[in-house]
Amino acid sequence: MSITKDQIIEAVASMSVMEVVELIEAMEEKFGVSAAAAVMAGPAAAEAVEEKTEFDVVLTAAGANKVAVIKAVRAATGLGLKEAKDLVEAAPANLKEAVSKDEAEALKKELEAAGASVEIK
Which ranges does the record mark as transmembrane (predicted)? Predict the structure, then answer.
């Protein structure tokens, strides 16, 4: 006599939490698998396929020409002189968050031309 999937589901539904945990442990031991690995692989695989569309531009160092970098930061962010200076001196610091790849690359090129070190994350 064969047990159907529905009968198995009903049997598991009627168990206590501790009984289900023991059942899972017994199945892991019997079949040499880990339920945690199977659960983690599902969503992680879907996320790996998804392409990143938003990037953060991080100023890692101001470089030798700090004045030019402050001007570039002001132009890019719209900050005042004092705020831009404080941001540049506080490096590493996020300049812009959740921007497109093209915008991030353009900002990086502009800041590096001014003498700054920049990362895109």
Answer: none
The pLDDT assigned to 84 comes to: 83
* Helix ranges (DSSP H) in the chain: 5-13, 17-31, 35-49, 66-77, 81-89, 101-114
pTM, two decimal places? 0.53
Q: Which residues contact 22 (CB under 8 A, 6 or more apart)?
A: none
Whether residue 67 is found in the same domain as residue 111: yes
Note down the domain range covering 22: 1-33
pLDDT, the chain, mean: 80
- Is 57 within 8 Å of 95 (Cβ atoms)? yes
Both 64 and 115 in a single domain?
Answer: yes
